[in-house]
Design a protein that fits this description.
CATH class of the largest domain: Alpha Beta
CATH architecture of the largest domain: 3-Layer(aba) Sandwich
Number of helices: 11
Structural class: alpha/beta
Number of domains: 2
Radius of gyration: 25 Å
Order of helices and strands: HEHEHEHEEHEHEHEHEHEHEEH
Helix content: 40-55%
Number of strands: 12
Shape: globular
Largest sheet: 6 strands, parallel
Bound molecules: beta-D-galactopyranose
Distance between the termini: 91 Å
Strand content: 5-15%
CATH topology of the largest domain: Rossmann fold
CATH superfamily of the largest domain: Response regulator
Length: 371
């Protein structure tokens, strides 16, 4: 009897140890120092209707797979509720990290609390996520510098430092729910507003914001091309009739610049004759073609391949419990915390450098951009 009892006790002990060991393997490896490699990474992108995000998603997925991770990539059609439910699904799929390019940087706090409670790490991708402590890292391009390049390009193209002026300017800003948009505008307006104050730059529509903080007053929701086109058409029809011409348009990105160019075309402006200086960002294919045709002056190119590379590295460093590379711990406070960030350099592209930069660096082929 005694022997049988001992055997039963020993068997029970083995079972308890076995179960505990099993339970251990379900623990989040990140909290245990991240030795465990591999696992599922969630990638949440805002929309396919803006060209750059298609490049971002494909590249990031490929880089993460090279590190040995599985991925689930979702696009939310610029619908905030859809992005939130896609994130919830990824949480339910037990992703280890969420990489998120937020549609609305103010709307994700609740779902990110759920993610954090499940031990999931969160990386804000290109656009900062605000109002929550549950953002571990941010990776983007230097958004203020993007705007500064646009402002400096205008300053140089019109020789604002020396020319008498006045020049007619029509400024635009990005989507009011996109944290990046205020940085783009501030970077440009810090260069241009002194010229507005001195009267060398005049907005006939009266839509020149009094301060950087008023940027959203000229924002285009969802970065929509057709909204930018109708806004520019309205301004031309109301304020630029007869001999009064638009001399310069500050466009924060290419999707807006495309709509603005269509409005200028319709209004009879001609490249190399009276086409205004027109800025952009992202070096989208349609806009690169417009630059080559003289219908856009420049774009600020952000090599999305480098962003994907950097984020994949950060994800791998996090999950292996290594120090995560950051190069900026002061610029991006999200209303709750200072978010450790990695900023990549943007680059200006103009007609004479399109081939050398975009084809030369393997971003586009000549065929893609009609060279
Ligand atoms: C911004 C992004 C830009 C711009 C815009 C439209 O957040 O940084 O590249 O194109 O969204 O997607």
């Amino acid at each position: 009897m005694k022997l049988r009892k001992l055997a039963t006790l020993a068997l029970g002990a083995v079972l308890v140890i076995g179960l505990t060991a099993c339970a251990d393997t379900t623990r989040d490896p990140v909290s245990s120092g991240g030795e465990e490699a591999g696992g599922l990474i969630g990638i949440s992108m805002p929309t396919k209707s803006l060209e750059r995000w298609n490049n971002d998603g494909a590249n990031l997925e490929a880089r993460l797979k090279e590190f040995g991770y599985e991925t689930t990539l979702q696009y939310a059609d610029d619908k905030v509720d859809m992005q939130i439910s896609q994130l919830q699904n990824m949480i339910n799929q037990n992703v280890k990290v969420l990489v998120i390019a937020a549609i609305n940087g103010e709307a994700l706090a609740p779902v990110l609390k759920t993610a954090a409670d499940a031990g999931i790490k969160i990386v804000a991708y290109d656009r900062l996520i605000n109002g929550t402590e549950n953002v571990d890292y941010y990776a983007t391009f230097d958004n203020y510098l993007v705007g500064k390049y646009q402002g400096e390009f205008i300053e140089e193209a019109l020789d604002l430092k020396n020319a008498a002026g006045p020049f007619n300017i029509e400024p635009f800003a990005g989507s009011p729910d996109d944290n990046n948009a205020k940085f783009f505008f501030s970077g440009a307006w810090d260069v241009l507003s002194p010229y507005v104050e001195s009267g060398k730059l005049v907005s006939q529509s009266g839509k020149a914001p009094a301060t950087n903080d008023d940027w959203a007053s000229i924002g285009i929701q969802g970065w929509k091309t057709d909204s930018a086109q109708s806004e520019m058409q309205n301004r031309i029809n109301s304020f630029y009739t007869g001999s009064t011409k638009v001399d310069v348009v500050l466009s924060p990105n290419d999707s807006l610049a495309l709509g603005i160019a269509q409005a200028l075309d319709t209004a009879g402006y001609n490249p190399d004759v009276d086409w205004p200086v027109l800025t952009g960002q992202d070096a989208d294919i349609a806009n690169v073609k417009n630059i080559l045709a003289g219908k856009q002056s420049m774009s600020v190119w952000k090599d999305t391949r480098t962003l994907g590379d950097q984020v994949a590295k950060m994800v791998d460093q996090m999950l292996k419990g290594e120090t995560v590379d950051v190069n900026d711990t002061t610029t991006y406070h999200n209303g709750v915390k200072q978010v450790p960030s990695y900023l990549l350099p943007p680059e200006v592209v103009v007609k004479d450098t399109v081939e050398e930069i975009l084809v030369g660096k393997g971003y586009y082929t000549k065929d893609q951009i009609g060279l």
